[in-house]
Structures are given as C-alpha cells and as structure tokens.
Design a protein that fits this description.
The complex is a heterodimer of chains A (206) and B (81).
Chain A (H helix, E strand, L loop, with lengths): L9 E2 L4 H11 L3 H8 E2 L4 E2 L10 E2 L2 E2 L7 H5 L2 E6 L4 E5 L16 H7 L3 H27 L5 H19 L1 H12 L7 H16 L3
Antiparallel strand pairs in A: 2-3, 4-5, 6-7
Helix pairs in contact in A: 1-2, 5-8, 7-8
Chain B lengths: L2 H19 L5 H7 L3 E4 L29 E4 L2 E2 L4
Classes of the chains: A mainly alpha (206), B alpha+beta (81).
Bound molecules: iron/sulfur cluster.
C-alpha cells in the first residue's frame, strides 16, 4: 500500500524545464502554470492548507509521467557544484513510510528506472546559466550606485516584471522566436535550449 | 531610469528564483544535507551500500539565501513551525 508521505510537508523545487513538462501534462502554457500552481515566481509547487502537494490526489501523483526531478530521485538526492562534480545523497525515509528499500540495485539503474536523466541534464543546463548570472551580478553590484529608496522600489518593480517574462519559458521563447524570426519549437527539450539561449542573451545585453 | 540598475534588479530576482528552483544558495539547508551520506557520482554503478546517517533525520529547512555554489536536488522539508 502506498502511503505518499513523501508528497506531504515538502517543498518541491521546479526549474523552467520541469514547469514546461508539467504545463504540457496539463495542456496549459507555462505562464498559466506558474500563476496557478507555483510559489515564489515559479520556484516551488504550491501545496494545500494541510501541506500536501497540489498534485497529490486519492490515486497518487496526478502528474506522475511528468513529475519533477526531486520526486523521481526520492529517497535519494543529488548535489552538483560549480565545477560539475556530482554526488548522490541517501535521505532518511519518512517515519510512516510504506516504501520497500532494496540494497542490490545501482544508483544508475534507479535513475534510469525513474526517467531522471533528461531532468538532470536540464538542471545542469540551467545551472551553467545560473553560475554565469551570479558572476555577472557580482561584477554589477560592485559598480551599482546607491540610490534614493523610492526610486529604487519603482525600478525594482519594473525589473521584476521584466524578469518574470524571461523566466517564463513560453513567454520568453515566443518573444525570442519573434525577434529572431525562428519557428516556435514544439518539443520541450528544444524549447528549453532556445530558452537558455534567450536568457543568456538577456543577461549579457550591453 | 538607469538601465544598468534595472538590469541588476532583474538579474538579482532571476538569480534568487532560478537558484531556489535548482536548490542553490541556501546555506542552512545545505548544512542539513551534510548529515546524509554522500556517494560520489563515479560510483553510481556500484550497489548502493551506504546507510543514511541514523538516527539524524535529514530535515533541510529553507532559511537564509547565501552565496553557495552547489545545487541540492532533494525534496526539502517544509514543516509548519
Ligand atoms: S509532484 Fe507528484 S510525486 Fe511530486 S510531490 Fe507532488 S504529488 Fe508527490
């Protein structure tokens, strides 16, 4: 019997690729998905008042085919650093967990079985971009002038609107395709590559 | 409006949100994860012999953003206080 304890009292992080997969599963755009099902501008899945994931229903995960990486990995976790070194972590199962844990399979088999590879590649693609963003931000903040607080808050608001458009895969890719006169891709993986290109161009604008 | 300042704010927001979505920049949570046993990626072909660090449960709580350059991809604890 499944207990689904691991879908309760958890914060499920979702990157733009995972959002696109989940939005595709529900037949909606990433723009709509972010507004309806995520917290913190698309960083985490929403949960209900009892702390249960918004996609958990009486039969189990309602988006199982397109569930996020952390759900595929559980009860292990993955760490990757800036150099691309990778580790796997074995997490303690929930107290009331009904899962059966074997010790004979390999992590590689487990990852394959869970369809985690495409998700890990996607995370690595966005991570490379994130490290670049952090570098640029370090250089920028060193140069930024101190401004009047009111002025700063208006600028902040405008900047957040611009940022939200860039992080929303469908919106950003549509804009990029229009500007560069290229066809809007169908496949999520293709859309992701265009999204990363668009973001890279955005962060490196003069 | 200063374009560079606006760009810096947008970038800061993007780093915070994209970072959170990839499990980056949460020092306290990262510290929690250290209590779990790690398996180097080059040993993924070996049967997983490691045991979790009992009795300490890995319960990473998301707290302070920090400049950690490690992505931690796990189901984070979200216990009500
Ligand atoms: S997405 Fe599915 S597997 Fe993941 S926490 Fe929600 S219900 Fe559980």
């Amino acid at each position: 019997m499944r207990c689904l304890q691991c879908c309760r009292e958890k914060k499920i992080q979702v990157n733009p690729y995972e959002i696109a997969r989940l939005a595709g599963n529900l037949g909606i755009s990433t723009t709509e998905f972010i507004a309806r099902y995520t917290l913190e501008q698309g960083a985490y899945l929403k949960f209900n008042d009892n702390g249960i994931c918004v996609f958990l229903d009486h039969k189990g995960c309602g988006v199982h085919k397109d569930r996020p990486l952390v759900c595929r990995l559980y009860p292990i976790g993955r760490q990757v650093n800036e150099m691309g070194d990778e580790w796997f972590l074995e997490l303690q199962p929930e107290a009331a967990c009904n899962g059966r844990y074997g010790r004979t399979a390999t992590i590689e088999d487990f990852l394959e079985d869970q369809g985690a590879t495409a998700y890990m590649l996607a995370a690595d693609g966005y991570l490379t971009l994130l490290w670049e963003m952090m570098e640029i931000m370090d250089c920028m903040s060193a140069k930024m002038e101190i401004r009047d607080a009111a002025d700063v808050s208006v600028e902040k608001e405008n900047a957040l609107v611009e940022y939200a458009e860039w992080m929303d895969m469908d919106a950003a890719v549509r804009k990029y395709c229009q500007e560069n006169k290229i066809i809007f891709p169908d496949k999520v993986e293709d859309k992701m590559h265009v999204h990363i290109d668009a973001l890279r161009l955005w962060i490196n604008q003069p | 409006m200063n374009k560079k300042t606006k760009q810096a704010f947008a970038l800061a927001a993007a780093v915070a949100s994209l970072g959170a979505s990839l499990g980056v920049a949460y020092e306290d949570a990262h510290a929690g994860v250290e209590t779990a046993k790690k398996v180097k990626a080059d040993s993924v072909k070996q049967p997983a012999k490691v045991k979790a660090a009992a009795p300490t449960k890995v319960s990473p709580q998301i707290k302070n953003p920090a400049a950690s350059k490690t992505s931690t991809q796990i189901k984070w604890e979200n216990k009500k206080k």
